[in-house]
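Reposting from the mailing list since nobody answered there.

I have sequence plus structure tokens for a pair of proteins and want to know whether others read the tokens the same way I do. The first protein:
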Amino acid sequence: MNRIVAVIPARGGSKTIKRKNIKLLLGKPLIYYSIRAALNAATISEVYVSTEDKEIAQIAKSLGAEIIERPSKLATDHSSTFDVVRHAESILGSPDIIVILQPTSPLRNEREIDEAVALLEDGTDTVVGCCELKKYIWEFKDGLGTPLFSERLPRQHMEENYFENGAIYVTRSKVYQENDYKLGMGIYSKGMTKLYIMDEHHAIDIDTEVDWKITEQLLRARIEANEGTQL
């Protein structure tokens, strides 16, 4: 049986929303939702929070997660998630599979985690959470806009493209052992990568105060519908 662990990267600094990872969202710290979803996922055997922040560590531990003490050099604005998880991978003794759950995606639930893990079959090294992208994309340069689409098609006739939403990454440990973020590989491997297509409402990534307010409304509706992780 594979050893599958969840790693939730949560540093103390935040530019747009102060102390975002532990700010209360409907009465619970933001990180609560990712920890709870990971603990409820049938495929996850261990849940860890990687942080350099003592308050985050204390809260995460009280919520049932184990703590990985992150070096301060991996907690700056320029630190990559790849390096943070590679550090966690080395501390954890190379588990078979690592599931990365950003705390800023609180609406991703345990069912979606399990479904993403299930896609990591033989020959697949990475699964990336994505959402459908059917929009008119423009390039903005030197004050001018240039369309990156050749024809203004109705949405239903657009090509199937997807954007990475940051909510779920499932990777084999060897991805961190064999690749280098500085080479542009990020969390991706040189092997096969699959996409886990998600509902955009479940994959919202909180970056601004507007994102926060939208998430509050979506979470209220989700709780009322008794869907997924509960308060």
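The second protein, same order (residues first, tokens after):
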Amino acid sequence: LIKLSVTLGNSKSTNKDNEEKLLPPLPPRLIVNLEATNSAKFSIYGVAEPNVEVELLKDDLSLGKEMVDEKGSFSFPEITLDKGVNTFTAVALKEKEGRSELSKAVTVVYDDLAPKLEMLNPVEDKLSVDYSDFNIIGKSDVGVSVMVNGKLAVVDDEGGFKLKIQLNSGKNNIEIVVRDPAGNETKKTIEITYDI
């Protein structure tokens, strides 16, 4: 009788071990192709386990759910962005397995303001000079790129820039284009006449 109860006890524990443990799905991965945009609408893509549901969160508020296709892809088209920094995360949901952990957060900055452009040299829009080497000097926002007639100017940590150009004799149209990471631009054209 003792042997029989020990045998029955062992068979019960092996049945529990054979039951399949349901693991929650893996966290989805959000893919954002840019860090900043000047558009209020934005699409977010990602990858996750096939045939799970993904819930997108912006600052911990749900923006909706989308099914992941057989290839493991999902998208949330036309998400409305708030001005400034928008932080997104996502979770994968499966009926029996439950929720995944939160995905790694991604941020997108919505900025529709054109960068400032302050010219320090020249200050005027039209001028005449008697020398061919000319320094274009100005100030803008931190983190912008500055092109002077198609040439990239170095921008310092405070938004200042300087580029030496060669003037041709006669009229020279100098175009300065300042672009921020969101794609906003400020342009200015200066006419410099070089009289030999």
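Reply #1 (J.P.):
I read it the same way you do. The radius of gyration is 30 Å.
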